Amino acid sequence: MTSPETSPETSARPVDGGHTAVLTPVLTLDDVHVRYGGSHVLQGVTFEVPATGVTALLGRNGVGKTTTLKAVLGLAPRTGSIAVRGNPIETQATTRIVRDGIGYVPEDREVFAGLTVDENLRLVDPERGIEAPIVRDLFPDLIARRAQRAGTLSGGQQQMVSLARVLLRDNTVLLIDEPTKGLAPKLVTEVADVLAEVARMTPILLVEQNLALVRRIADTVVVLDAGRVVHRGRADALVADAELTRGLLGVSMRREGAA
Amino acid sequence: MSDFVLLATTGLALGALYFLAASGLSLIYGLMGVLNFAHGAFMMVGAYAGWLTMTDLPPSLSVGVRLLVAAVVAVALGAAVGVVVEVVLIRPLYRHHIQQVLVTVGLSLASVAAAQGIWGADPRPVEKPDWMSGTTSLLGARLPTDRFVYVVAALAVLAGLLALLRLTRLGLIIRAGVENRTMVQALGIDVQRTFTIVFAIGGAAAALAGILYAQYAGSVSPAQGGSLLIFAFIVVVIGGMGSIVGTAVAAVAVGLVQQLANYYAASGVGDLSVVLLLALVLLLRPTSLKGATA
C-alpha cells in the first residue's frame, strides 16, 4: 500500500459544482473480493461511483482494475456486495446485469473480427444497427465502413465500434476499460471527445492509464493497489499533486501523452 | 475411369454423411467449447428411431414413404435428445470441460449398451426403397442411386445452416459466440438459449446422418454411431472447429481420401490415410484446432 485513504468522503460529493443535492451513487461496491485459483486479486474493494460524470479507476498494472470491472459484470467469481442504484446485482448473471443497464467496453475492444461493423452493432440493436442516431452523431466515420469486417479496422476504428455497440442500449452506468490503449495521440483525443460527450448523459467508470485524459474528463478518482482501494478523491486534486500521483501510480504527468 | 467415378461418388456420399455427423459437433464445439462425445448416441437415436418407425408403419405404405416419415421422426427425436442432453447434462457442467467429456463419453457408452440390451448387438437389416437400390449411369459408370440421396441431403443441410448463420439473428449470435461467447454475454445477449438451439440442430443433423448411414450400410447396429463419430471428429478438427464451410470441405476430403486410398493402395489404407491427412493438417495449419468463424 502506498498511501492511506486520503479522502473517503469525497466520492459522495457532487462533482458538478455543488448546486445539486447529494446524489445516490449509481454503483456501489462493498467489500468485494475476487479469487482466481490461489491468488486473491481483489481484497475487499469498497467504493462508489457517483451518478454523474466520469470516475477514473487508476493504479499500476496488475492491481485489479480490470478485475474490478469484471467482478461488477459477473465475469469474475466474486463475493461481497455490488449494487446499482441500491439494487443488489452480485448474484445475477452477466446477461441480466448488462440488460439492467451496465454497459461494458472491454480492454482490447473485443469487437467480433469476422462480423461486419453493421453486424457488430446489430447484435445489440437488431432493428437499427448502423442506422441508429447515436452512430450518426458520435461515430459518423463508421457508416462508410458498415460492410467492412471489424477485424480489418484500425485500432481506433475498432474502439469506436466497441463504444458504439454499447451505446446502442440505454445504460445506467458504463464500465470502460482502457479505451485509449495503443492508440495514436490524435485518436486518443477523438476517443476522449466521445467519452466527454457520453458522460454528459451517462456516468462512466473508466479504467485509464493516460493521466492527461483523466485530468481532462474525469471528475472523481479511485486508486487501487494490490487489490485494495488506497485513495479516493477529486481527479483534479490528484493530478495536480505530483508527489501524490507518483506515490500512488509511480508516474507523473510529464511522462504521459496528450489527450 | 468408371472405377474412379464410382469411387469418387461413394467418397462424396461418405463425405456427405460425415458432414451431417460433424456439422453439429463443429458448431457445438465452436460455440460452447464442448467436445460432445455423445454425438454418436444422437446418430444411433436417428438410426434406431428410423428403423423402428419403418418397421411399425403399415406395410401397405411404400418403403419410400415409410423412409420419409421415419426420417422426420428421427430428426425430431434427434433434436429433442439434443435439447435434453444440453439442459440436463451439459448446462450444469458448463465450464467444467473434463466433467463434460466424462459425462458425454458415459452417455455414449451407456446408450450403446442400452441398444445392445434391447435390440441385440447384431446388425438389424433395414429396408431400402427400390429406387435407391438401383443404379444410375454417369460418365460410363453405374452408380448406386442412394449415393446421390446422401449428397443431396447434405447439400440441403449445408444450405440451410449457411442461411441460418448468415441471414438470421440466431445465426448472427452463433457466429459472434463462436468468436467470443463471453463478449456476447457481456453485450446482454442470452447465449444460453443459443446453446440449447445449437444442440437441437446438432442432434437433428446427427440423427439424419444416423438414418442415412443405416441406409448406406443396409442395417442398424449399436456400434454404427461410434464409428461414424470418429470420422466426424477428424472432419471437425481438419475443417476448423466452428466453421461450417470448413467442415463441409473437410468431410468431402476425408470421404474421397478414404475411398480412393482403400482402392488404389490397399484395403484398410483408407482409414490410415485419413489419420495421416489429419496429422498433415495439424502440422501445417495448427490454428484449425482453435477454430475459425462460423
Helix and strand composition category of chain B: mainly alpha
Mean model confidence by pLDDT of chain B: 89
Instruction: List segments of chain A where confidence is low: pLDDT < 50 over at least 5 consecutive residues.
Output: 1-21, 254-259
CATH topology of chain A: Rossmann fold
Largest sheet of chain A: 6 strands, mixed
Order of helices and strands of chain A: EEEHEEHEHHHHEHEHEEHH
Average pLDDT number of chain A: 86
CATH superfamily of chain A: P-loop containing nucleotide triphosphate hydrolases
Judging from the principal axes of the Cα atoms, what is the shape of chain A?
Answer: globular
Number of distinct beta strands of chain A: 10
Q: How many angstroms does the end-to-end distance of chain A come to?
A: 29 Å
Describe the largest sheet of chain B.
2 strands, antiparallel
User: With helices defined by DSSP (H or I, 4 residues minimum), what is the helix count of chain A?
Assistant: 10
Computed over alpha carbons, the radius of gyration of chain B is: 19 Å
Family (chain A): Belongs to the ABC transporter superfamily.
GO molecular function (chain A): ATP binding; ATP hydrolysis activity; branched-chain amino acid transmembrane transporter activity
GO biological process, one term (chain A): L-amino acid transport
Domain ABC transporter (chain A): 27-251
Question: What does it look like?
Answer:
The complex is a heterodimer of chains A (259) and B (294). Chain A has 10 helices and 10 strands. Helix content of chain A is 32%, strand content 24%. Chain A has a single domain, classed as Rossmann fold (3-Layer(aba) Sandwich), CATH 3.40.50. In chain A, a hairpin with a 2-residue loop joins β9 and β10. In chain A, the strands form 2 sheets. Chain A has a 6-stranded mixed β-sheet with strand order 6-7-8-3-9-10, sandwiched between helices. Chain A has a 4-stranded antiparallel β-sheet with strand order 2-1-4-5. By secondary structure, chain A is an alpha/beta fold. By secondary structure, chain B is mainly alpha-helical. Chain B has one domain. In chain B, the strands form 2 sheets. A two-stranded antiparallel sheet of chain B has the order 1-4. Chain B has a two-stranded antiparallel sheet with strand order 2-3. In chain B, β2 and β3 form a beta hairpin. The longest helix of chain B is centred in the first third of the chain and has 31 residues. Classes of the chains: A alpha/beta (259), B mainly alpha (294). Chains A and B meet through α2 and α3 of A and α7 of B.
